[in-house]
Amino acid sequence: YVSNPKGITRDIRRAGLDALNELNRLQAKKLGNPETATRIAQYEMAFRMQASVPQVMDISKEPKRVLEAYGAKPGGASLANNCLLARRLVEKGVRFVHLFDWGWDFHGTGGGTALGNGLRNKCATMDKPVAALIRDLKSRGLFEDTLIIWGGEFGRTPFREGRTAKSKNLGRDHFPDVYTMMLAGGGVKSGYTHGASDELGFRVTKDKVHVHDLQATILHLLGVDHERLVFKFQGRQYRLTDVHGKVVQNLIA
Questions:
Q1: How far apart, in whole angstroms, are the C-alpha atoms of residue 62 and residue 65?
Q2: d(Cα 190, Cα 138) in Å, to the nearest integer?
Q3: Distance from first CA to last CA of the chain, Å, rounded?
Q4: pTM for this structure?
Q5: Would you report the helix, strand and coil content of the chain in percent, each value rounded to 5?
Q6: pLDDT digits over 130-146, tens only?
Q7: Torsional sign, CA 226, 230, 236, 238
Q8: Is the confidence at residue 3, as pLDDT, over 70?
């Protein structure tokens, strides 16, 4: 059912799924295994996705002004297309949308991965669609209920990478100690900057946020108490934010 083979109509797939679900319900009634109920729910979800996702994925139905605002081109592969698709998914009630944008690893080993034009050109592919996504969500009344998280897994060194010392290209290595993330919508305070680094961007000098603090704050904005979200492992309860994560209250509107 997940592969949706050609030539099988929706009605036939639905009939087959109903028959399979009936067998699963008989098994659940006989054995009482909760995993069987989970399996039924997964099959139902797969069918609903087959029926609705193709229409949601078709951005060609969007007005020209919307496509131009994002810089999106139907049929292409770009962050612009994905940002527009993200709005369409949110509009349909999808609870979590993850967009991945490759190509920010600016080590300076070539012109395309160097600071200067390489970084400027890359930023140009991100600035327009991300801004359009925020404006679009606001215009549709979705912004207040949608938490946007923009960032990567680390920052870049404030000094030149050693292997580019004799090159005309400037690059930066991976750096976990100082980096920036952006949160918008979903109960986040507007126009607020939290924390600061020294003048070189080498160390955090004000309002340091640990990764567990960030996660605790995100969970709080999603309506989840990070101290109660636990799982049992090797005889004791663990939580995703370890033992020291705390909600950053200053970020919350």
A1: 8
A2: 13
A3: 44
A4: 0.78
A5: 45, 10, 45
A6: 999 999 999 999 999 99
A7: negative
A8: no
